[in-house]
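Ticket #4471: complex job returned nothing on first submit. Input attached below:
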Amino acid sequence: MPIHDQGYRRYGGDRAPRGHSWAVIASAGIRTFFGKRAFLGLLLISWFPFFVRAVQIYAATNLPQAAFLAPTPDTFRQFLDQQEIFVFFVTVYVGAGLIANDRRANALQIYLSKPLTRAEYVFGKLAVLMAFLLLVTWVPAIVLLIVQIAFAGNFVFLKNNVFLFPAITVFTFLQVTLVATTMLALSSLSNSSRYVGILYASVIFFSSAVYGVIFVVTRNTMFSWISFPANLEQIGDLIFRLPPKYDTPWLVSLLMIVGLIVLSGVILERRVRGVEVVA
Amino acid sequence: MSAPIVAADHLSKWYGQVIGLNDVSLTVPPGITGLLGPNGAGKSTFMKLITGQLKPSKGGIKVLGEPIWRNPALYFRIGFCPEQDAFYERMTGLDWISALVRLNGVGEQEAAAMAHRALEMVDLLDAARKKIGAYSKGMRQRVKMAQALAHDPELLILDEPLGGMDPTARRKTIRMIKEWGRAGKSIIVSSHILHEIESMTANILLINQGRILAEGNVHQIRDLIDEHPHTVHIKAEQTRALARQFLAHDDVLSLRFEEDAVVVQTARPDAFYARLTDLAASGELGTIHEVTSPDDNLQAVFQYLVK
Amino acid sequence: MMAQPLRTQPTLVASALRIFDLSLGQMLWSRRSAFLGVLLGGPVLMALAIRLLSTTLGPFQINGARVGGAAIFGIMIWLLYIRFIIPVLGVFYGTSLIADEVDDKTITYLFTRPIPRGAVVLGKYLAYLACTVLLVLPSVMLVFFLIVPTGGGSIAEAFPFLLSDFGMLTLGLAAYGALFAFVGTRLKRPLVIGLVFSFGWEPAVLLFPGYLKRLTVAYYLQALVKHEMPQDSAINMLMQVFREVPSVPISLVSLTVIVGLSLWAAGRAVETREYVLEQ
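Support reply: We reran it on our side without changes. The output follows.
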């Protein structure tokens, strides 16, 4: 026809298959944070311990007088311990507002009115936080392992400690999953990211403080399961084949971690809704 | 001549690289003034500057003869109704307004009485003891206006006061604003709903892209827009005969026919109206039922100047 | 034009008291106070548990030495209240004083009134102090009455410690609250800064000798802790922290200066700052 219709036309191009919408949320979230200079500064600072360890490994492999600095599996365990402070700050910075800001802006209804399931929404948000947390835990630890191989010029260390790669992976993924689900669940409870940040800090520090009091009073580390960070430490020691710091059975610590993840899932299931049902 | 209520002198405001207001010099006379402009024009920036929420980047602004920035004493004489729908939701309307009035240095009982009067003025007395969280959109808008006038200010600054109101509430509010104007208050009303501003006042301030396009009486402004011909809509019996008559004069630039009417564009409306009056009086070209000017109004001024 | 009734601008203090009236009810009855309740209920529940345990298992012992209730109370005051609850409340409420009004977009109503803007900060600060003191002190009192009698402790003998603890905790709330009120008026991410300060800077700096510890609030609060502590190797390390403590008068003056300076600076900050609300 000579004169074409300039009106609305339905989209006739390709569509991604259902179930990929979470990636859209994740990529948008990640891009947003990469655009913030203060956050980039935090990420940069979080890699500082990596550089210190890399120098240590270089010295140990190239200077005979620095051989005492040679890395052991405990080096990687300690490195991940040191990264916990950055895990905390990245979690608060990135995670506190992930769902809280959407609730404040009434954006949940808009999200869930699209062909997007609640699970996809939650996984998308989770992916944002987990991506950054892995960037300050798993990535530098694995790169450190690679750096050790590169500086040593052989695979001896890796062959002797072949469990290190899966240990780092399993521990960091467990840590990141626990931290991210907990923070996301807290973020869904409020529409103030500030309040969520404090709630999260309270969960971490209050549980540690309570355990601290009980330890000082009873001189017994059996109660370490009360402390959020101590449970992760206990499991971390087990994964890295190190003697455990606490007397708490590792199964109890693991159950606490799994229980917290499940509880977070239940909270998310109840709180992430397009409408609030008033009975 | 009364002193202006607002005087801006080469007023500019920018946010980083973005200019909100660009070298604005104006005076706002006492009475009701409508502040008009499309979204992003600089209305909010101007409102925030005249209410002392923002500091000018350059130039100066005086409200009621005094600089407003960091001059809290001026707020005795100013009442501000902001655009945002934000309240202390758990408080009742009466408690909220009383608490705000108390910040004017008023005692508790007097504050409650003033709050009561203000709520009565906005027709919200029945809901005075209900929590604001339970108010409808229109009620929330009215309680916002009540807090602005509870302390009986000289100058009311209303930012989109009709937002969210149903037609009945809008009419009531417009009537109230006109009454306050008649009672001697000066009012600056910001809106982008042109016909509502037009029903409140003929005195406007038209702003776009951070600059003032026009200020003053809307009809005078219209007359000044020479390059835009005036449109006259004439409903008559013999439209074609009338058209032949109109085309004989060079001030008629164009015309078109509508059902039972002819729409004329003229460069000299005074001369055209004089001829039309004679024609209507003589009746030689049939009866002329109705003569209207669709563009002697704010909409036309807005469109011509903002385009 | 209508004649205006003459009005005198309320003084800073009178304006602040009116803001205090407006804010106290909101702070006390907000949902966030539920968080406060949980936070302050935790030590009470712990105290109850310890009391029950001591009743069934007998008095607690450390290395054969009996631990009195007063010592346990002292440990709880230090580990739970001073090192955790007081800083958390200070960070949470202090940084939110003005930020909450800005987020809720109600700041316009307060800043378009004939009162100095500094009065808004002062009034809200006083409301925060009243709210937290009203909730913290009863919690401390309950813990005191539950814990002190364990192990044969005497309430009458320990009562002066309770009174000095009341004063110390009130000063701690005042100092942290004022400091973070200033941080909240000046910085974009006050919560993260507050957490870094309370749980990063202060614990780190207090461990090392030198002048840096004078840049903390905890250093001055320590001097006001007068509790008897159980003697053992772990506590001895803790006691090292107490070695370099200022005198009580210096601590009191320093804390007062911190409160005064921070509130003055916060008032100055809001006077000159422009608040552009999100549309």
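The longest strand of chain B covers residues 18-28. Closing as resolved unless it happens again.
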